[in-house]
Amino acid sequence: MTIYEKRTYSVKIGQMPEVSRLYSEEGWPAINAGGFGKYLVGYFISDTGPLHQLVHLWRFDSDSERRDFWNRLFSDEKFMAFAVQIRPLLDAQEVQLLHPAPWGPRP
What we know:
By secondary structure, this protein is α+β, with helices and mostly antiparallel strands. It has helices at 16-33, 63-73, 77-86, and strands at residues 3-11, 40-45, 53-60, 90-98. A hairpin with a 7-residue loop joins strand 2 (40-45) and strand 3 (53-60). Helix 1 (16-33) packs antiparallel against helix 3 (77-86).
């Protein structure tokens, strides 16, 4: 069963430009180079509602695939070098697992 994982990171006020720079220059290149990008539906930055949020949406074919993905990503040296830099710029993280409704399009 397809699972979507929504990860919402609350960024410290004033730090979104640095978060964007780090993701552009280090985070995304590490994710993509390791072959992890194939699971990504997209990244989003909030513009209304709660501000200063970076949202990731990921797609997995099963929960075991999802768990394996995160274990492999958190074992990747390049990604972890990026993670150490970005963590101090974040206030909070929320992870939500979503199952697609039985109607409508799916990404």
